[in-house]
Amino acid sequence: xxxxxxxxxxxxxxxxxxxxxxxxxxxxxxxxxxxxxxxxxxxxxxxxxxxxxxxxxxxxxxxxxxxxxxxxxxxxxxxxxxxxxxxxxxxxxxxxxxxxxxxxxxxxxxxxxxxxxxxxxxxxxxxxxxxxxxxxxxxxxxxxxxxxxxxxxxxxxxxxxxxxxxxxxxxxxxxxxxxxxxxxxxxxxxxxxxxxxxxxxxxxxxxxxxxxxxxxxxxxxxxxxxxxxxxxxxxxxxxxxxxxxxxxxx
Length: 250
Known about the structure:
Layout: E1 5-8, H1 25-36, E2 40-43, E3 65-67, E4 72-75, E5 80-84, H2 89-99, E6 105-108, E7 113-115, E8 128-135, H3 136-149, E9 153-158, E10 166-173, H4 178-189, E11 196-200, H5 206-211, E12 214-217, H6 223-226, E13 231-232, H7 240-248
Parallel strand pairs: 1-2, 1-11, 11-12, 12-13
Antiparallel strand pairs: 3-4, 4-5, 6-7, 6-8, 8-10, 9-10
């Protein structure tokens, strides 16, 4: 297969899991070699735009990027949203009541992050709730309870900055997944989704894998993701993204 694009997760994949982490020099050099060959390099991240804008000159990213866990596709060149999937306000208001029961949560808008808000205005575009730092069993209970009551929403686990052995829970609109966004991404760029390499490490990368032709799990990925991967790359600490580019592109 001649691959035309690579879509990488950020935390634990393109960079170590830290809000301000940058790719290593080896990874950046590999990305440049791939883009010089005409390969599209993009990201699909749970982060909202304010948390990843600093990466754009680092990579650099020039193609559309998938953010807010698939809730948005953002056109970097023209600085505009070209696809979005928001949580309807009535559902968001109900989710807010649930989120308030937890110690820390964010509500992600397109260009703003609300830290544990008590309420919000009706005209806001709400892309994602993030409930931080839960034990796995707590997360599973929350996911199960919310999904039963709100079947049109998407609830899942993701990596966290809050500590080892913990996870965050993302709540988005049902069509705000990396899978939906990748299919739209492929349509916009006039390529087949089967010509895309997906690279990820955590539970919210399952939908990314489902949409792409080659599924690559990082060495530091959760075991469930590794189980469905076509290839397991070295860990993020060992420049796994560079390894993938060298093996499948260069």
